## 1
Amino acid sequence: MNASAENGKRLSAESALKLVEPGSVIGVGTGSTVRWFIEALGRERGLIEGAVSSSEQSTALLRQHGIAVLDLNAVGPLELYVDGADECNLQRHLIKGGGAALTREKIIAAASARFVCVIDGSKRVDVLGRFPLPVEVIPMARSHVARALLDLGGQPVWRDGVVTDNGNWILDAHGLAITDPVALEARINQIVGVVTVGLFAARPADIVICDGERILA
Ligand code: 5RP
């Protein structure tokens, strides 16, 4: 990771902090950009009532910073969700799941009124798919789903050794030029054995902050 990309992540995370309502419960994503966001939240002790976390990794970080981690079922719909992405197009469609947390991330995005995506400039693309598309699968369905992804023109690679927080496995589909993200998300969701596809298109981000600047909304 070069220094300017890391700086872009930090600036975006710190800028997202300005959108947080004091006293609220917010959704918190996963990854190195979100790590900056959690650190910033930690410096503003008492700013939020608590957070719904998208991964065991973020749960541990939130607790280290003295932030209460709450159950989505107990707190209901959220006003705000802040998370990173692996790629983002002009329509605010995203590829996510580089950190294998895509399922809980998609649940929190669905349950949130506003999804703020925080990225650095290297994540912006015209067409999604240069970053391999993560797909979380039930372990016994790995080969079945891999064959279906091949039929769709992808080259699936098993992220060997990675087990998600939900006890599942990840296939990364290389070589897809995703010209219709909404249609491909729906198509992959229909493959039996798929838990979640890392395309966030049917529910895109509402706001994108890139290198600290709000660029798409
Ligand atoms: C984790 C994710 C992350 O948001 C995505 O991988 C971006 O991570 P980073 O901020 O480290 O670049 O989807 O599942």
## 2
Amino acid sequence: MTSRPAVYQFNAAIVREPARSVVNGLRADDRGNPTYEGVKAEHAAYIAAMRAAGVEVTVLPALENFPDSIFVEDPALVFPEGAILLRPGAETRVKETVEIAPVLKSMFGTVLDLPTPGFADGGDVLTTPKSVMIGLSARTDRAGAEGLISSLDRLGRKGEMVQTPEGVLHFKSDCSLLDSETVLSTKRLARSGVFKGFREMLIPEGEEAAANALRVNEVVMVGADYPRTIEMLDKAGYEVVPLKTTEICKIDAGLSCMSLRWHRQAD
Ligand code: CIR
């Protein structure tokens, strides 16, 4: 039996160009629209960082009818052994799944549909070496999480339902995996005890949005606007790649949201 690559080892990723309509992306609090040019620049730097980290990136064309479609992480989940098409919990995003389905079918031998009923967003899913954690949130309901657990089971993965803190968009808005044993988490999420058995690094007060960092191979991508988090990770020995997220942050996004990542196995 071949062993699985570490959950942060990726050699393939899918991203989608931002549409001009991205300025109208969903947000919980209005802090003004992001600019299209700003989002595009942040997205381009993200793709470059992915490639520099050793990932082959497939760039899909923009979808004007879907302002949030740049956040390809939400309508699907991908693993070396197959993909799962999800049902995003925001009405304006549900059909993003239809758009990404043919792409995944051309790249994966196994593509499963989330069973009905229920909703689940990829942003609520944290893949760890122990389990695939699914945070219940305003976007992912119990039925969706249960359906997802059964789909994960078909792929040979163990799903586990957990709770996203009240008022937080996605489970992964508040955490990310730094290595096989360590999570980066906001204090409010860590306080719930959800990361028992993991080493926890806690986000400095006031930099909560930095929790959606992204470990890719040897590097950890972190929002450039969060100097204390960057310093903490740097001191702990992680190779930090700061990336600007000022514009996408205005529409409640961070670094994991902009890609679907997996380890493609050699044929
Ligand atoms: C939304 O509200 O759906 C988008 N504006 C942000 C999605 C961020 N996605 C993610 O964290 N996975």
